[in-house]
Write a structure and sequence with these properties.
α6 (110-155) packs across α10 (311-321) and α8 packs across α9 (232-249). 42% of the residues lie in helices and 27% in strands. The protein is an alpha+beta fold. It has three domains: 2-108, Beta-Lactamase, CATH 3.30.450; 114-183; 192-342, Heat Shock Protein 90 (2-Layer Sandwich), CATH 3.30.565.10. It contains ten helices and twelve strands. A hairpin with a 7-residue loop joins β4 and β5. The chain has a five-stranded antiparallel sheet with strand order 2-1-5-4-3. A five-stranded mixed sheet has the order 7-9-10-12-11. The protein has helices at residues 2-6, 27-33, 37-40, 45-49, 55-65, 110-155, 159-183, 196-210, 232-249, 311-321; strands at 12-16, 22-25, 69-77, 82-92, 100-107, 192-194, 215-220, 228-230, 254-268, 271-283, 325-331, 334-342.
Amino acid sequence: MHNKILDNINEAILLFNKDLKLIYINTAGEVLFEDSARHLLTKSASDIFGTGMSLNEDLLECMERNEGFFDRELTLNLFHSNITISFSATPILENHQEAEVLIELQQLDRHLRISKEEQLIAQEHISRMLMRGFAHEIKNPLGGLRGAAQLLELELQQDDLKEYTQIIIEEANRMKALMDKMLGPNKLPNKVPLNIHETLERVRQLVQAEVSDLITIKRDYDPSIPELKADKNQLIQAFLNIVRNAAQAIQNTGEITLRTRIYRQMTIAGNRHKLAARIDIIDNGSGIKPELMNQIFYPMITGRSDGTGLGLPISQSIINQYNGIIECTSTAENTVFSIFLPVGNVND
């Protein structure tokens, strides 16, 4: 009963034994540390909070003196970002049992993440409207141009002149294919129960075959993620766009990591979900220019001279169809695209 209550509060709750090994973490703690209880339990406080923080001595002293302590603003260096929290430690000494220490963490910048999600959703809606409007405006005259070139070709007698009409027709076909890509999938998704790791493995194999042996694609999968209901081809396309971008960001030698974790009671884009999968695509390439960070999910925005700027908006649009979202953080040698996907009942 106590665990059920703790799992439904917004503050992260962690319980350490006298050796400062984690023996309990609630759902909010799993979300905060972006890891599952299964991976975190039995880890030491220094493993969880980082060796750069001098918490061990404080926590041991907290238990010895039976006195709690509180830090209003503490910066945690997590897997791919820094967050600001309020930190409260309370010793638990009951019936002469071994001492334990209860830690409560509240993320002070949580509202910034919510605001960022709202901004990403607004960006996706704007991008979709822009792409659809632009594509329709281009496709109508493009069809007329192609048709006129075909009629002209029928009137021409010389083969060398027909080469020019063929160029017009081929370029019109190329532009139509690009417009169709901007419009996104034109078929209803074929949602079936699938294993997210099988989908990621397919993407890994495709990209590994395209890149040199100097680029390594590593896997860090959480086997506890259940099946979710989705269109496999759509998810492959969404992940493939991001992993290919990661490979292109690596100049010569580098590493891409595909990382998955499962969360309980996860809030995505303002909606609470019992279970959610997080897929991180991490690369140690050149990073994304700061001036582009707030625009990368808009169409036609790209940092490469040969890029179309359509891959990320299309990926975001696909993930949004499943009530998920894609977020990104980037530094000089660490770019992380995080895909959050609700995991519902596959029989729904």
